[in-house]
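<instruction>
Derive structure tokens from the sequence
<entry> Chain with its tokenised backbone below:
===
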Amino acid sequence: MNKCQNHHGCVSPPPYFPGGMIGGILFLFVTLIIRAINDSLGMSIPINLQIAENLRSPVLLVILIGFSIALLWWKVETTPLSEPEIPESPVQKYRTIK
């Protein structure tokens, strides 16, 4: 398989799995914050962790996962690859000192 497939010159891993994980964790944090606001202020915002009971929770989950994947995809595509450093041999160091 050819190692150079994208515009950077090397293959970079797709951010689907990390983006999905980050989106799921963001969903947990957002729902916990909304739950705390609901409990403290007595509001009835219908977003909670029970995604099978209402339509707003799974929509929020899909939006956060999609946003996380898109953000990580953008970050992977815009970050230049680092060049590996080639260590100098002791002979080259000696020649450059003189």
Notes: The first helix runs from residue 16 to 41.
